[in-house]
Design a protein that fits this description.
Blueprint (H helix, E strand, L loop, with lengths): L1 E9 L2 E8 L7 E9 L2 H7 L5 H7 L2 E2 L3 E8 L10 E4 L2 E2 L16 E2 L12 E3 L4 E3 L6 H5 L1 H17 L6 E5 L3 H13 L4 E6 L2 H4 L7 E4 L11 E4 L6 H11 L5 E4 L11 H7 L2 E4 L5 H13 L1 H7 L3 E7 L2 H13 L4 E6 L2
Parallel strand pairs: 11-12, 11-14, 12-13, 14-15, 15-16, 17-18
Antiparallel strand pairs: 1-2, 1-4, 3-5, 3-9, 3-18, 5-6, 6-10, 7-8
Helix pairs in contact: 4-5, 4-9, 5-10, 9-10
Length: 341
């Protein structure tokens, strides 16, 4: 079964190619319907990765956040026409200790091999999760980034000590909002404190106990644990503030991605006996846990609607460029491509 694939061949240059999706007994063929643009996609699209990385990875189809409908399933796992979330992480081995998203042998779509900007995608059934009717298409399309937060919170729950009266989240963007919504859903009794720089964005955290601009944090405010969801140039200040305001033996979860090394005050980490861990990407269990949470907590789904930004119907390469350029201009939320290729 021949299908079109739309690959980034150079910054802001997309070309069409064709791939053969062979019908066999092990692979499900899915037609993508809704694709969500991520900051990682934008770094490739705008050429903001190092030249040697671009040279190594391009040409490549972008997008790792997507849903679709099943076209063909010889395994009998799904019915034709069923909506599914597509999992970009593709492990090639199993390990009793290391999760699939941390195995160095795992492949990840739109980061080394083709993402979901394709007419048809061939995947094994374990890389797909069925979607309940209760989850709208636009929200379901960015399940991947939500599953990353769900993964980080699961790890936090295993690592952090039991005193969880106050938890801080540094950041006011998409990742911080998602993490806050999930944490509030899973631990509604915990007081959440949000620290950011944009008053309008902070006003959207209506379920939080308090929100603070990072330049006006009360000197005596203390938290038990924290999540860093800033990344980039803001990471150093965010981590420094967390170390200043966290109680001894607290846990710091790092989620923000930074291209450059970030200096950390190890002296105070030692003095306070802090635990710091990083989380990246997610696995099948995290996707399933995310969908289960959506199905059980309509309020969380309602909050996620705030992240649905512009929805652009895509039928041509010109439409793809329009979607990416519109995403660059956004200040908050997710740009969704309604994929009608």
């Amino acid at each position: 079964m021949l299908g079109a694939v739309y690959r980034l061949v150079a910054p802001r240059q997309i070309e069409i190619g064709f791939v053969s999706n062979e019908r066999d007994d092990a692979h499900v063929i899915v037609r993508p319907t809704h694709l969500s643009i991520c900051n990682a996609d934008q770094r490739y699209y705008q050429g903001k990765r190092a030249p040697e990385i671009l040279e190594k990875k391009l040409p490549m189809a972008l997008i790792h956040e997507a849903i679709g409908k099943v076209v063909y399933d010889p395994t009998g796992t799904f019915s034709v026409g069923q909506r599914v979330v597509m999992i970009p992480n593709t492990p090639t081995e199993e390990d009793a200790i290391i999760a699939e998203n941390y195995l160095r042998s795992s492949k990840f779509r739109a980061s080394g091999f083709d993402g979901f900007m394709q007419e048809l995608v061939s995947m094994t059934p374990d890389r797909l999760v069925a979607l309940p009717d209760s989850v709208p298409d636009a929200i379901a399309s960015f399940t991947e980034i939500v599953s990353v937060s769900r993964h980080a919170i699961s790890r936090f729950d295993r690592i952090a000590h039991g005193r969880r009266e106050k938890v801080g989240i540094w950041g006011d963007g998409n990742l911080a909002f998602i993490t806050a919504v999930l944490f509030h859903s899973l631990f509604p009794e915990v007081e959440l404190y949000i620290f950011g720089i944009d008053a309008q964005k902070l006003s959207g955290f209506t379920f939080a106990a308090e929100t603070h601009h990072v330049n006006h944090i009360p000197a005596d405010l203390r938290i038990d644990h924290a999540f860093e969801c800033v990344g980039g140039n803001g990471s150093p200040m965010a981590i420094e503030q967390i170390i200043d305001h966290i109680h001894p033996e607290g846990t710091i979860s790092i989620l923000g991605v930074s291209e450059n090394p970030v200096p950390v005050n190890t002296r105070m980490i030692l003095e306070k006996g802090l635990r710091m861990f990083g989380s990246s990407r997610s696995g099948r269990a995290d996707f399933q846990n995310t969908i289960d949470l959506y199905d059980k907590d309509p309020e969380a789904v309602g909050f996620m609607k705030n992240l649905v930004g512009e929805q652009i119907t895509v039928r041509t390469i010109k439409d793809m460029h329009e979607a990416f350029e519109a995403d660059i201009r956004k200040s908050f939320g997710k740009t969704i491509m309604k994929w009608e290729i």
